[in-house]
Amino acid sequence: MSHFRRAHIPGGSFFFTVVTERRAPILCTDTARTFLHTAIRECQRRWPFRIDALVLLDDHLHALLTLPEGDSHYSARWGWIKKKFTKAYLAAGDSEQALSASRIRQRRHGVFQRRFWEHTIRDEDDYARHFDYIHYNPVRHGYVESVQDWPYSTFHRWVKQGVYPPDWGSKVHGVMEFDDLDITAME
Known about the structure:
Layout (H helix, E strand, L loop, with lengths): L12 E7 L10 H17 L3 E7 L3 E7 L7 H18 L9 H5 L11 E4 L3 H17 L14 H6 L22 H4 L1
Antiparallel strand pairs: 1-3, 1-4, 2-3
């Protein structure tokens, strides 16, 4: 059995990629968004954390979360969110991906991949690059020509607060590069 080493920085900020099983395009439906929103809010009530940035695409999401001082238990949070989402999703009659015999024995469902990708934010520049990467992701994947056209993102909140101009991330201004980030591991 593999043992993954995760960075545990109490009170730190972390970048995450969470992917659906077999990249099923399920996350942007109305019901899936509702279930995910509910699972995240319930998790925040149990174990507080701040969502600094989030983008939801059909088959994965990226998030930048900050945990409370002294807390480094992000794995428990993601496990709980995925479990709550999966229960609601399946109870609503939505289907999961085909399961292998070992997954059935382990009582796993075929909605999310078992693991997630995590990166510990090192400093303000690292934070800013991942913050921008999250918001630019729909353009990078070709869903839209401009970040402002993708509705499932915290980008709109940050425009209202004056962090981004509304036309930030538009292909009209050129394609943004994130060569300094290990994006192959994130997607």
